[in-house]
Design a protein that fits this description.
This protein is of the alpha+beta class. About 50% of the residues lie in helices and about 20% in strands. The strands form four sheets. It has a five-stranded antiparallel beta sheet with strand order 4-3-7-6-5. It has a five-stranded mixed beta sheet with strand order 9-11-12-14-13, covered by helices on one side. Helix 5 packs parallel to helix 6 and helix 6 runs antiparallel to helix 8.
């Protein structure tokens, strides 16, 4: 189990431990301050009582020694009073000092020895200070009647030692919990991400040779299952596309093989021995005709390639009537050769958003099929209906038709219905593939209806353009 700082696992662990650390840190600080308040609260109350007691003694004592306050008033304190015995020994934990309001020291207890309690006007009422080598809790009690400051302090070494031990225990526990959290977080994240690592390994095993393989993982989490399903769906689409490409290449190779063989054969025959001018002419005519068919095939393939890279931003408002008339102009001679009657019915012109050249190619392919697979003296009906949202074009012929069982496959590349249907006509099976792609690129719909010997009907629907 490796640990990298830029991995999802490490980020989860850092986030997990960080959140726990922040929460426990806040709780630890809260408990420490709460314990301090519990420890110091009775001490502070005791110090305040003793400060008030000293203040009362100053007001009522008999003469033993005297001093003057800032106002020049004489005070006398009897240090033999029973209330002051706790300040008399250097071993006592209690201390006091008397100061004027400006901070001048007047008197201090014998328990302080050579030490002096610090004082400044910025001090709070209660302070925890270091005096010599010991810590004391001190009150600054201001007696404004007698214009003096009474400082009473208590040695809190034991209390501080207790608080320090508590802090050490708290932060040691916090550190221990963080370590345990980090280890458990690493274990949990490893268990949680192990399906992802397994998925990664299975994906690495997939190549162009096994795109039909599906990724399957046991006991996969719900969140990852949707990812696996989506990936398997992607693999399925890629496999279909890859198989179509392989089939397309195979079909192209097959289609080009025959004309190339014809050209090669004609060249070999022409070069094998001396021929007459008429023989050379026939060979060249056959080669020219074969090259023309190859050119048509290449043009169709280039059209399919162009459709893949079409930019929808270049779409413009196109007149459906206009592109149909342009297509009929290109196919007029074919219709006349078979005496096909073309009946054009338009309620009114409608406009769609699209590429004019591609839409013209669309109608050329459909109408060309309607003529090519029609009977002599047949009929082609082209009808356009304009609704509030869509433009519907119906192209119906009286031709030989297609079996219903083959309707689903006629849009496949290089697919030809059957030999009897295509025996008398030339084509490569790319026309309807191009038609379908053009319709899809224009977000349209195409429906093909046909019956053997009863003709074929093509229904096209496009969303109207808002001019």
């Amino acid at each position: 189990m490796d640990f990298k700082l830029n991995s999802i696992k490490s980020k989860i662990i850092v986030l997990y431990v960080g959140i726990i650390g922040v929460i426990l840190g806040i709780l630890a600080i809260f408990f420490i301050f709460y314990l301090k308040s519990i420890v110091y609260k009775p001490i502070d109350a005791n110090l305040k009582r003793k400060a008030i007691q000293l203040d009362k003694l100053i007001r009522s004592t008999t003469i033993r020694f005297s001093f003057s306050n800032a106002l020049g008033k004489r005070f006398e304190i009897d240090l033999s009073k029973a209330q002051l015995w706790i300040y008399s020994s250097v071993y006592s934990k209690y201390y006091f000092e008397l100061r004027t309001l400006d901070g001048k020291l007047i008197e201090k207890s014998a328990s302080l020895g050579d030490l002096v309690l610090p004082y400044s006007k910025e001090m709070d009422e209660f302070e925890t200070l270091r005096v010599g080598n010991q810590f004391v809790r001190m009150i600054n009690f201001k007696d404004r009647d007698n214009q003096m400051i009474i400082q009473v302090a208590y040695n809190v070494k034991n209390e501080r030692d207790m608080l320090l031990r508590f802090e050490i225990i708290v932060f040691s526990t916090l550190l221990f919990i963080l370590v345990i959290s980090g280890v458990s977080g690493f274990y949990v994240s490893h268990r949680a991400l192990s399906p992802l690592e397994e998925l990664s390994e299975k994906i690495k095993e997939i190549t162009e040779h096994n795109l039909d393989r599906k990724v399957q993982i046991k006991n996969v989490p719900k969140e990852l299952k949707c990812v696996i399903d989506a990936f398997n769906s992607l693999l399925e689409r890629l496999n279909r596309a890859f198989m179509r490409e392989k089939q397309f290449i195979s079909d192209v190779s097959h289609e080009l093989k025959t004309p190339i063989s014809v050209i090669q054969m004609q060249c070999d025959l022409a070069l094998r021995k001396e021929r007459s001018g008429e023989d050379y002419k026939k060979a060249l005519e056959l080669i020219r005709k074969t090259i023309s068919k190859m050119t048509q095939l290449i043009d169709k393939m280039l059209m399919l390639s162009r459709l893949e890279a079409l930019d929808h931003k270049a779409f413009q408002d196109v007149s459906v009537r206009g592109v149909i008339l342009s297509a009929l102009t290109l196919l007029k001679h074919k219709a006349e050769e078979k005496s096909i009657d073309i009946d054009l019915r338009f309620e009114k012109d409608c406009f769609v958003k699209g590429d004019k050249d591609l839409l013209e190619e669309l109608f050329v392919n459909i109408i060309d099929n309607a003529i090519k697979y029609n009977r002599e003296n047949g009929r082609v009906l082209i009808e356009a209906k304009d609704s509030s949202e869509k433009c519907e074009i119906i192209i119906k012929d009286s031709g030989i038709g297609i079996d219903e069982s083959e309707l689903d496959r006629v849009f496949e590349e290089f697919y030809r219905v059957d030999k009897s249907r295509s025996k008398s006509t030339e084509g490569y099976g790319l026309g309807l593939s191009i038609v379908r792609k053009i319709v899809e690129l224009h977000n349209g719909e195409i429906v093909l209806k046909s019956q053997r010997e009863k003709g074929t009907t093509v229904i096209l629907k496009f969303k109207k353009s808002t001019l």
